[in-house]
Write a structure and sequence with these properties.
This protein has 258 residues and is of the alpha+beta class. It has one domain: CNF1/YfiH-like putative cysteine hydrolases, CATH 3.60.140.10.
Length: 258
């Protein structure tokens, strides 16, 4: 990824998309006060709504996209994905879901994260983009594959033409999980090899969200996948981390727009 410092804001872009308006924004450069300092995009974490609104304006302005046409969803750790034509009048979110796809130019897709994995998609052939929010629940329900499937069914995208990007999230060395997660991973993927690591000292399990989502997308036929490889826990100075900050934190934003 390329790290970009634009005025006060710091954000990352994937190297494969130099001509596409997109960004994974850090927590730096906003107006929110601690513990949401400072570029918090989460509207339901206890922060001042005016500060959150201003942070969104800063983010969209930095990318040069239209804030008034931005679309998002109320994220619920599901595998539900929706088609997007534009914003719904009177509210800032479209539906209870964790994935979005659109072929509409000038309609930014935006979501919020704090350890879960941002998944971004682009089909340059059909002119279609997508975004998904993949925690462990979404991952084992196939949120990435569902997003690819909706792109194919609705817009005629071929998985081989879809370029995917796996953004910053909690890394494989930091994501300790319980046995119920191990069982869910095994059920969805048919194996835990390369996805679950056991601590040799006490046998506790650690999940690799990056590898899991990459495997799911590869099985769906997506061959062009870029992984950020940035752990939100280890880089807590740049990214909000629900686990590192014990739940008292903000959300960083991700945006993609045709």
């Amino acid at each position: 990824m390329n790290r970009i410092h634009n005025d006060k804001l710091v954000y990352y872009q994937f190297t494969q998309w130099s001509g596409l308006a997109h960004g994974i924004f850090t927590r730096c450069g906003g107006v929110s006060q601690s513990p949401w300092a400072s570029l918090n995009m989460g509207g339901n974490v206890g922060d001042d709504p005016k500060a959150v609104r201003h942070n969104h304006e800063l983010m969209y302005t930095t990318l040069g996209v239209d804030d008034s046409r931005a679309c998002s969803v109320w994220q619920i750790h599901s595998a539900d994905t929706v088609l997007v034509d534009g914003p719904v009048r009177g509210r800032r979110w479209l539906a209870l879901a964790d994935g979005m796809v659109t072929d509409q130019p000038g309609v930014p897709l935006s979501m919020r994260f704090a350890d879960c994995t941002p998944l971004l998609f682009y089909d340059p052939v059909q002119g279609v983009i997508g975004m998904a929010h993949a925690g462990w629940r979404g991952t084992v329900q196939g949120i990435g594959v569902n997003t690819v499937r909706l792109m194919a069914q609705s817009y005629g995208c071929k998985p081989a033409n879809i370029q995917a990007a796996i953004g910053p999230s909690i890394g494989p060395e930091r994501y300790q999980v319980g046995e119920e997660v191990v069982a869910a991973v095994n059920e969805h993927f048919g194996s835990i090899d390369g996805l679950i690591r056991r601590d040799p000292a006490d046998g506790t399990a650690y999940l690799d969200l990056w590898a899991a989502n990459r495997l799911d997308l590869e099985r769906a036929g997506v061959g062009q996948i870029e992984i950020a490889g940035l752990c939100t826990v280890e880089n807590n100075h740049e990214f909000f981390s629900h686990r590192a900050e014990k739940g008292r934190t903000g959300r960083f934003g991700a945006v993609i727009c045709l």
